[in-house]
Design goal:
Elements lengths: L16 H25 L4 E5 L6 H17 L3 E5 L6 H8 L7 E5 L2 H8 L11 E17 L7 H10 L5 E4 L5 H13 L4 E4 L3 H9 L6 E5 H9 L3 E6 L25 E9 L4 H14 L3 H9 L3 E2 L7 H21 L6
Parallel strand pairs: 1-2, 1-3, 5-6, 5-7
Antiparallel strand pairs: 3-9, 4-7, 4-8, 4-9, 4-10
Helix pairs in contact: 2-9, 2-10, 4-11, 6-11
Amino acid sequence: MKLFAGPFIPLPGVLSMRSISACLLALTATLAAPALMAAEAKPAPLVMIVPFTQNGPTDNVARPVAEAMGRVLGRNVVIKNIVGGGGTVGARQAARARADGDTLMLTNLSQAAAPALYAQPGYDPVKDFEPIGLVADVPMVLLGKSGLKADSFDGLRQYLDKGSRKLVLGNAGKGSASHLCGLLLSHSLIKEFDQRAYPGTEQAVADLVTEGNIDLLCDQVSNVLVPVKAKSVKVYGVTAAARLDVLPDVPTLAEQGLKGFELLAWHGLYAPKGTPQVTLDRLGNALRSALQDPKLKKDLLAIGARVAESDKATAKALRTRLESDVSRWQEVVRAERAPPR
């Protein structure tokens, strides 16, 4: 039998393989289009620069805020830790970021102290940023090593007055909240301390607990709750105006005679200078909504932080606080004869 070897001619009403393939491809493209469009429409993550170490006190404030703002904005907010120079390295990068609202910075009171501590930080903390709002305050606690011969703040002052030796005050590096607390304490007591800097808070706290190289440490309550509750350090007082809910039995330094002494590690959220006002308004609203998030409040309360009220989570309130503290730290550092380097 002779086989037909000519070209294939499809019968009327019967689809060719090529036609079937084309139909399948068209159907696949049609079904995939919504998913592709959704993927393309998904916004890129918003970057929140934290100019201090991961798992440090400022980072511990920033992460719940980033999560809550992400839920409000409907986009991921990722933390980018850029360390160095007491917060100035990260702040410098934040100041130079594109002013489109996709890069923010959450930092602490070091933003205000930078001009007093560094001759050329590389940015102006007021002029090179757009304030969005205050985020939270974290009170601080003055601690001593367990072997220090002073059981109270009054006893510590008497020990200092005797002047038998200069005590060593630890901190988490120049420009850190603990460094600033030490400067203010020295300024208020009119006493000199030897300052010993560590790479971070964790190392400073560990050295105090093990009675290593430092006698005193003034740091954020979020960093020291564990050794305080374990009674492995001496507790001399808190730096807030009122006693803390997490440490109700610890008196303030002010009520123990250090009149007017108050220091809070306040945290603020910033955008680069030139960010459009409509974007700043959107971010400000998102911040205020995020600060009402029950999970955020619970997370920050657990580390002793006090969430900013809505009237403080504003650009105006943050700018006022920043400008006031820039002047404050200029005065303190000048009095302590710690000139910019």
